[in-house]
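FYI - complex with 1,6-di-O-phosphono-beta-D-fructofuranose, inputs then prediction.
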Amino acid sequence: MNDYESTPLHIDLRRHLREHDEDRDLTRLICEIADASKYIINAIRTGELGMAGTSNLYGEEQLALDVLSDRIITKRLAHSEVVANLVSEESGEIVPIDPENEDKFSVAFDPLDGSSLVDVNLAVGTIVSIYKGSNLLQPGRNQVAAMYILYGPRTTLVYSTGNGVHEFGMNSLMEYTINYENIRMAGPAKIYSPGGLRSKYTAGTEKFARALEESGTKLRYSGGFVPDINQILIKRGGVFMYPHLTDAPSGKLRLLFELNPMAYLIEQAGGAASDGRRKILDIEPDSVELLSPVFIGTPEAVALAEQCIREEEG
Ligand code: FBP
């Protein structure tokens, strides 16, 4: 028996949000994103795998799926009547919708993270970070909600509004119904997901990786941030890292679009998220493009990473 609180099935996402007295506009926003995912699923299953002929703000060539997923979510958010500003990892430009309205929400999202994995049939996901008001350049601790949708053998949705982390599964009617409420991480890290080239690890990260291996922690790495984090969450414990590298001191992952929402969810499940020295959620972003190293998962593992880095790198 999992240590999650199993919940009567058939509670769908909207009912779950309402039964937890969530803000009506936030409920609407989360449900709009859930609805948008149904079109992304269709695009993934049937869409072309070609390139879009464009590049994102990081200079990475965009797949047609990236651009299509970005348009699907952007359109839903723009017409939701509850959004002040939005920014997608694909465009990197803040899109004003009702930009001065502090009663609405601002959304940063990665429409299809790991999209290059689709053509090798591996799992990918949508990651969403939600703030109250118009300001998107806030520390992640100020998020009012975060969520991801994982397009794998099953489609699942995980969200938190600060009252625990909850997982939903998509049923045959394409409705999201509850699987587990209040998912909690527990015990030592059983798996670890090491991003980046090992040969580029700094001394502290190398010491941490060796300590994990010597303690029998199993390596599980798909190359998709959403499935790799989801595995750590749903299997009750583990650690993911995309560290600072000798040739990439800021690592690879984006603070606003990937790290803040996942750090919020993992902390809500009793886990921890650090850049190796400080909490991810405390980082004050000065631009939407900010990258950061990340160690995220079981608190003990994250603390060990920080200790190894302190000991070896000062
Ligand atoms: P994209 O945003 O370009 O998809 O890259 C993000 C990502 O795919 C993450 O999902 C994953 O954790 C990481 O890059 C994998 O990087 P690498 O291929 O260097 O291991």
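Helices lie at 13-19, 24-46, 64-78, 203-214, 225-234, 255-268, 299-313. The longest strand covers residues 105-113.
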